[in-house]
Amino acid sequence: MTGSAFLELAVAVSFVLLTIALLLVIVRIVRGPTLPDRVLALDMMVSVGIGFIAVIAIKTGYMLYLDIAISLGLVGFLATVAFARYILQRWQMRASQTDGEGNR
């Protein structure tokens, strides 16, 4: 097996595995069951997107795509932090509305 044939096989396998991962992430976003599960799934979707971009960069040989993947990683990280902060504030607000026994 030549190097280019192996690279084409690796790219094809990568696309299949990333597609399966994307479908599983979409299932987790839809099913939940909680908001933190959905936030984690959205973060994983960003990671899978970065994987797709990296594989496309390898397949085409156009390495500018890697800059796009890095930018997407930074934006995805900031979005995850923002969602986590929102969830924390929501939890703190609910905790302040209840007394020590969980009654309103």
Structural overview:
The protein has helices at 3-31, 35-60, 64-97. With 104 residues, the chain is mainly alpha-helical. The chain starts with a helix and ends in a 7-residue tail after the last helix. The model has no long low-confidence stretch (mean pLDDT 90). The chain is built from 3 helices and no strands. It has one domain: Helix Hairpins (Orthogonal Bundle). Helices cover 86% and strands 0% of the residues.
Uncertain ranges: none
Strand fraction equals under 5%
The computed structural class is mainly alpha
Amount of helix: over 70%
Tally of individual helices: 3
CATH class: Mainly Alpha
How would you characterize the largest beta sheet? none
Distance N to C terminus:
69 Å
Number of separate structural domains: 1
What characteristics describe this protein?
single chain, mainly alpha, Helix Hairpins, 0% strand
Briefly, what is this?
86% of the residues lie in helices and 0% in strands.
Task: Summarize the topology.
Layout: H1 3-31, H2 35-60, H3 64-97
Helix pairs in contact: 1-2, 2-3
